[in-house]
Here is the input.
Amino acid sequence: MKITCRHYLLRNSYTRLHNHFNVIRRIYTQAPEPELCKSVTESNAILKALRLLDEMSRRDVVSLTALIGNFARQNQHKEAITSFSAMLHLNIRPNEYTFGTVIRSCVLLKDLHLGQQFQAFAKKIGLNSNVFVGSAMLDLYVKLSNIRNAERAFEDTYNPNVVSYTTLIRGYIKEGRLGEAMRIFWSMPERNVVSWNNMISGCSQMGHNEEAVNFFVEMLRKGVVPSDCTFPCAMIAAANIGALGMGMSFHASAVKFFGGLDLFLSNSLISFYAKCGSMENSLLIFNKLQKRNVISWNAIICGYAQNGKGKEALEMYKKMKLSGVQPNSVTLLGLLLACNHVGLIDEGYKYFNQARLEDPSLVKAEHYASVVDLLSRSGRFQEAEKFIDDLPFEPGIGFWKALLGGCQIHSNLELGEFAARKILALDPGDVSSYVMISNAHSAAGRWKNVLKIRQEMRERGLKRIPGSSWIEIKSKVHVFVTGDRRHGERNEIYIVLRFHREHVMDSQDISTLQNSEFSHPIAH
Here is the structure.
């Protein structure tokens, strides 16, 4: 790669800066020169620091790296890179800290090409394998390029440290390669709280909530002190699998470590308890908040809505308005959900239209889809169809699924099949649509249609996503799917199931039991 760092960024930039250098004379003679640069830049006099550098009797890598670092800390990243150009103009050889800083500026400027130029220059002077330079390049490739380039940067780094490993883990998680992220994590010579946080949040974001919870428990067992970012990630994962007991122990741990709860963690706890169906605890946390933001209000409103307490959700919305906190798009979504749960169709439609007139920026595609769901679930199909026809954009899958869901509730097979065809035209591999319309035919006793749909699914190679469940035993979450053969204690589990089967053989469910999964031989 051709080295062009000297010529990068406004070829005349150094000339313009040099003109500034002559404006003022030497000042602050009592302070050491690198410290002087730091104090000047941190007092928002960055250009004065550049002028002062021209008058310094000792202009070296320490002084200029300090200046570049201060520019970067104040988000003056173009100025930091321009200062690097000045450094080369003065024939001062940059060190690993200089490169680490300017490469980080390239990340924040989203300039991959410039970052690669710095990497090539570092390689020319023998610094590319340095851990500070290598970690910075890892971060650049993870955020702006691809995991293969990140892997090469990691391989080129001599003695990678915890930052290097953690950055590579983040890259694998970003690519959805959780298995490789775990492999790197467990191979790390040392781990810090950031490494653990990456695994907990990564597992949670990818839907592996039980692994996220287990990572958090293992982190505590290893004696790693959580940060303020750890608990919200763990609480979200616990909420997603309904692990109320475990989440309550996380809550207690947070109080133990921090002595209290900040707003960020409190909001996570409000959502956690609501998702686990414990609105009493959710309201208790909410009421204890000395200061509430829009996220706090949204958490309690959506919590009530999700738990079927629509009237309480609407009451909370009124209190939110009185408190002076402005609602956002999430608030509107919570209101529509609340109205849906208690059958307040006209009320929900009123909130939607009010938002559309008063603040159109609040209304997103998901709000339109919620109105379709609201109308469909109440059986008002003509209004739902007209609403879809009048949309200011083309309806996506979510709209037709909302309509199909309502058709399934009210056994409207004709409209349901129309909605299903729309969904399959947009996504031929959508299994849930086949299942929903098959269930509707099954409920109506149209077995030929059911067989036809199942045959079409087989021909397309589509399979139902198996149902899953989980239990919490001794602070460990165990997940099971239909016909599971992967659990480490599967033999003991099936022995217990057979034992229960033997005791209900005379019941009316015998035919069901004989055809069930656990009546089959266990796979070894």
